[in-house]
Specification:
The chain has 13 helices and 13 strands. With about 425 residues, the chain is of the alpha/beta class.
Amino acid sequence: DCGNPTNLHVLSLASQLKLGRGINMVVSIMQRDRLSPANDQVQPSNAAMLGMDFTGGKIVSTDPMLTSSSGTGGGCFDQFEIVELVRHSKVLLQRHMQRENMDGFAEVAATSHSLSEAVWSAVIHTGLGPLSPNTVMLSLPRDWSAMGEKRSADYISTVRGIMNMDKALLLFRGNETYPSSNDVIHDGRIDVWWVIHDGGLLLLLPHVLSKNNVWGRYGAKIRIFAVITSATEDPRTLHEAVTDHLARVRIDASVTVVDLSMTTIADDMREENNFVEGMGGCCGVPGSDSARGNVNNNHNKTVGEVFSNYVCEATYSTVLGDEEMNIRGAGRESVQAITARSIMDHVIKGEQGALPGNDGEQARRLRTAAAFNRLLQQHSWRSNLVVTNMPLIRPDKPTGDFFDYVDTMFDGINNLLLVRGSGNEVITTYA
């Protein structure tokens, strides 16, 4: 179809997160170099969407890496055929919005420059007076190797620039199994793997989704997997604290504690002082709390650091390997906990040779990603949506390292939402 936008599951997610309030603005960005004035046929993969929901200021986007361009040509609207194509694409975009029951505005732009510049411009200039979005959603590519090095680097540059603007970021990888706004899920399940606290945005989004008719009509279940990242954290204390917190903020969810203290998961997910000093992008802006490595900011703390008020003086050791175990407290129900110790041992011994490099920092990170994926395959393979923290993008590492890590960690997961807050989000118990 001429000018038809792709990856509409992102539009579905944006519509379901709105709860019927706010203003949506959806912007489709098309690559000028792939538009032929003599033939206005454009493959669907050459169009992308940027949607913006101003319910508390949220932005959303679909497959931007498909619109990246290295062209240096002149303006895009100097040819009548392109102008007509843009108008036609806008009509198609409005129809998709109507199909998803999404009210708001649609706009289409053609660019002869890079994806990052087009998206940054949309983020900066879109808004209604002083009301501007504070969250950006991008579609996460499934096959980054097909993009090529230049386009994948442009995608990472786009992400860093958005976070430099102090925007929260959502990366969504979905497929045809993700429900549209006209579907109804029976026995739906949303799994949240909570590693970094991130101000509570990771909890808020699944809760909002569960209230939508698509997910909530038949009672979609939210399952929280609270991850232990230190051997001195007590799973019983963490379970009780997270359960109490959920009750205070009125979020109905089950809680399971996952012990990943033997992995590098905390370092892979959060900003550290040695990475952020003097750098921007995902690693923080110099002078900001994140750039100073402020450990008093819950945004950058692990779940265990925020909720485990009691920390064992001695290393807490599990007994049952990677089996599920019940930890009973006096007068309380049993606490379900999972440890990936033997899974990690198996990955190190059995799969080390299959990973790119048998030693070094990236190899250790990929072993953590493989162990995390084993747990996802065991406990979340039937879930309709998996939500977790977005891994750290390291500015001093090759672009492919981030994509390799994500692909290893979430292999086999159909619908995935990666979340990284700006540090300004907070869930209050007084609302």
